[in-house]
Amino acid sequence: MIRSVPRSRWFDGLYLAYLVAFFVYLALPLTVTAVFAFNDAPFPSLPWKGFTLDWYLADGSGGRTGLFHDDTLLSALWVSTKIAFWVTVGSVALGCVNAVLFERLEFRGKEFLYLLMLLPLVIPGVILGVSILVFYSGMANDASRLWGIELDVFRPGMTLVVMGQVTFIATLATLVIAARLRKFDRQLEEAALNLGATPVVAWFTVTLPWLMPSIFGAAAMAFLMSFENFNTTVMLTGSDTPLTVALFNRLREGSTPVLNAVALLLMVGSALLAVMAMGRSRDNA
Amino acid sequence: MNASAGRLSLWLLLTPFLLWIVLLVLVPHLQMLRVSFQVRESWDTLAWGLEQYQNFFTESYYWRTFVRTGVMSLFTTFLTLLIAFPIAWYIARLARGRAKGLLFLACLVPFWASELVRTYGWMILLRESGLFSSWLQALGWADGPVEMLYNDVAVIIGLVYNGLLFMVVPLVTTLDGMDENLVEAGYDLGGNHLTVLREVVVPWAMPGIVSGCIVVFMLTLGSYLTPILMGGKDSAWFTEQIFTQFITRFNWEQGAALGVLLLVLSSLIVWLGLKLSGQSLRKVMG
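YS: structure for the whole thing
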């Protein structure tokens, strides 16, 4: 079934139909979600009642509160942004260090440590969240009970969410950055050293610029994954609810087109971020 | 670089790695294991015991959900592989130039939206007042509203949708590197489509198949949103029970035991998958 092997016409037709059906299946849920963000009806379903921007702009006076006046969702959006920022910083920093560690240095037990590094990928997200909750929150409880010390950082909240997400996003960042470091021509670095640069200078002027596209890629990926994460986050979140958890709570109460409005905003935001990251890595490739 | 500078840089790089792995992965999981064996006797005394694990085996609700979650995850993974393989084949081997890039991109796009958004999209389509129901009525194929949400089929549709990307990408990557001469040789030696697929293509694509299956299985087993939002009353998912123990009942000991069981199940199946296919974790993940 490669190009050079003859295929029958009905097989080709069937294959094409399958491809079309597949891409319709992929596109359908997101398309309807986006379209119903603009339906002038209080419930995201047919019939189509006309186009409106109420679900973004309405200020609550007509019985509708649009996204830009919905304080709960806006503050959740801000919480998610802060979390995603710190997760990105932490994961990318760890990713760079780990990439150099595993690609450049030789030491005993490297194979074993590499497997440990991959471990977070084969642990379900819920379990990552639960284990961190049990350890850190349990520690805070014990400290409070036994010695009266309040370790509020380790109570469910933003710090724990960041820690939980870094746990697995750092592995992904490491894989992305290490893949690029593997393709680096070490003679470039040796040339810099021969020309009198110290190892640190050589790293910052030769190796790091080479890694930059992968660092941007890893950062965009880390930001997106953090922003969208639910399974780990829901176990660790405190009173300051991130967006996915706030949306989930809202959805359980019943759906309104405001949810579609948020969903569309998220899709556009992540698409822009992804396109930016892809554009950057293409320029530098 | 002399030896002591080498040692210094090794330790400088090793320290963040060890802090991350030890403080965020190893120690929390060991603590979870420890807590799962603790039995609360009164508000501040604990004893060692197996009570939580006994609960799991005696209360049929727990282990039934456990088995159900495992079986449905395996089925979803298999289904995702079946659906994704022809697509990956087309993108890797049949499409050319721009079409190839565009089709690959089209597979990526839905995953820039979060799982919650994707699930929500399916809810709008499948529920009683949803689009499919309206369309069926408009076409005259149904007399009244049809409820297509809140059953196992809906859950599987959603789970497969969530897993597709993680299956398509590794498959395309491995199939892309395949030498077409191998396939031609297979046909020249008298193989039909099926034997060529079985003897040439599948063995070649094995690392991609295993890596896709592992990721999809892990995602499905650990998913929470899709089964909760799209499943009905009888379609409980194991992650939901863990959540209930921790967040609603504050029974951390029981929740930790259920967490350990889920972790054991997922590790066991990933290990079996690697063993049966003769792959290593490093090869399929790294």
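YS: worth flagging: The two ends of chain B are 29 Å apart (CA to CA).
IM: good catch. Also The first strand of chain B starts at residue 38 and ends at 40.
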